[in-house]
Amino acid sequence: MNENIISSNLIVLPQSGKTSTVELAESKLTDAKVNGYQSSHQKNLDIQTSPSLSVSEAIVKMLENMGVKYAFGVSGGAMAKLWGSLSNSQIQVLHFRHEAGAAFAAIEASLASDRPIVIFTTTGPGITNVLTGILAARGEGAKVILLSASTSASQRGRYAIQETDEQTMPGREILTSGVLFDYAATLECAEQIPQAAKRIALGLKRPNGFVAHLSIPTNIQSSLVHEFSPQLDLSLDLTIPSKETISKCIHLLSQGTFAIWVGFGARFAAAEIRQFAQRTGAAVMCSPRGKGIFPEEHPQFVGVTGLGGHSSVFTYMQEQLPLHILVLGTRLGEATSFWSSQMIPQSGFIHVDINPDALGVAYPSVPTFPVVSDVKTFAQSMLQYLPEDFVEGKLVNLPHPQPLTIKPSNSQLVRPEVLMQEIQQVCVDNSDAIIMAESGNSFTWATHLLRFAQPNRYRVSTGVGAMGHAVTGIVGAAKARNGKAIAIVGDGAMLMNNEINTAVKYQIPAVWIVLNDACYNMCVQGMAMLGLKGADAAIPQVDFVMIARGMGADGIRVEKESDLRMALELALAASTPFVVDVMIDPTRQAPSRGRNQGLLAQNKHLSFPLIQ
């Protein structure tokens, strides 16, 4: 592993949420220039307090200076003072209907805006309800700060309402740093605020995600703060690979043909990756979360890997097996690779990721040259030092994902592939809306059939993969970008956890396209593929337009394929939350073969044939 790294800075501008990279070659990093650059761009969190400032107000001022614009959550008596301080600040407070929905929305708002987002909850169930969303935030690389209430010290152990302390909850996991939180602390006194502020600021300086938790006892929220002025630098810390590391990568790639495997962690390096691919002639594939970082219609693109992916990737690996694969910003987990042996190159991986814990883990027995770096910084360095005469070897006749051929049908319901074709033409090609796909068949249909030419327009969750993530996350995405965002979801997820009413309250232009087939169809189809019978996953038929209108939104039900375009155009034109309830043909087999093959491999006693 490369230990010869030097640091640079990626400055976060809290006013705009945009980022800019210091593009300095290693040979030009003089002390004068670096020190001058840092001194001109540092932002200090200067919190001048007075004896009348409470802990809650001091924390909110700290968050404002960290660039927080939004706080999502559900209120409660134990955190009334904190809620009040948030509500009377420059931070816009959105009151959700469930803490999990608030957390999923915070994830997507953070990723859409590149800002930290606050989640607030009360004691007891407020905290436990939010935990699935917190796990998802860690997995998705979001920056969120959970503010929760906890029971006052004098009331602990006395059966307080929704008592919250280490005696009544798994405190090691919830109230301390660890699996759930990169940093967590309970503030027992005002004097702990400066340390907490510095710890959070240090976490936000990281270019990858950061999840923090401040638990504030009810009585502490209103206590007064003595004056303090913490000096905190908000510039991001990047690792730049050394010349030796870049030289080694170029040497490995020059030994023979190679491919590039692009993941979500490369989303800010789209221009550099495209330039590098075109200079070298390398084939490019991407993870489901990496769709659009490299244009999917580009002649060097061979397809999406993993869940909902394309057979053209396996065709490429079988017919033109590369010597190496350059992995950029993906963990190569099950949803990206299914850990398939068919995805192993002849001489191994060059794996680049900002998180050292991700390097070489998914394929532990395959030779891997690890590089700890921000992908954009790495790609810039590779372009800088790549020899002008570098030729990877032109790859001819690369396989590509095949366009969908839709044949006439006698189906009385809407075929999912026809729906995706209309979404492509109306929502992807003719709007700038963010598209999110929910877990389940929505994920596989959208990932397999939609095509994107720009990064940061398609979002799926492949870590926790919780149902309800897209259904509620779309509210945060639409709010943060102040524009249209569309969720492709199943009826099961829509019933599990939606925030339509929240979107109505704040007039957020979110759109839900519901694949309504009256069952958990990924489960139904998967069980059939595995030859297992007897499981009941049916759902009584639901009218989601009626539900939407009952909450104050609008919608339209689609029962014929000929009505799809009109319905989608209405949804895009709507200025308020809108539901498109599509009656889906449940017999159409979703492109989930890879997932079911993976399950089959884990249950080797099953020997039932798998179909496309």
Description:
Belongs to the TPP enzyme family. With 612 residues, the protein is of the alpha/beta class. The chain has three domains: 55-234, 3-Layer(aba) Sandwich (Rossmann fold), CATH 3.40.50; 241-385, TPP-binding domain (Rossmann fold), CATH 3.40.50.1220; 416-602, Thiamin diphosphate (ThDP)-binding fold, Pyr/PP domains (Rossmann fold, 3-Layer(aba) Sandwich), CATH 3.40.50.970. The protein contains 22 helices and 21 strands. Strand 7, helix 7 (193-204) and strand 8 form a beta-alpha-beta unit. Helix 9 (243-253) crosses helix 13 (375-385), helix 10 (270-280) runs parallel beside helix 13 (375-385) and helix 14 packs parallel to helix 21. The protein is globular. The model is unreliable at 1-47 and 604-612 (pLDDT under 50).
Which properties best describe this structure?
612 residues, alpha/beta, Rossmann fold, 3 domains, six-stranded parallel sheet, globular, Thiamin_PyroP_enz_TPP-bd_dom, Thiamin_PyroP_enz_cen_dom, acetolactate synthase activity, magnesium ion binding, TPP_enzyme_TPP-bd
Indicate the structural class.
Answer: alpha/beta
For the record, the CATH class of the largest domain is: Alpha Beta
In the CATH hierarchy, the third-tier topology of the largest domain is known as Rossmann fold
Distance between the termini: 41 Å
Provide a compact summary of the structure.
With 612 residues, this protein is of the alpha/beta class. Helix content is 34%, strand content 18%.
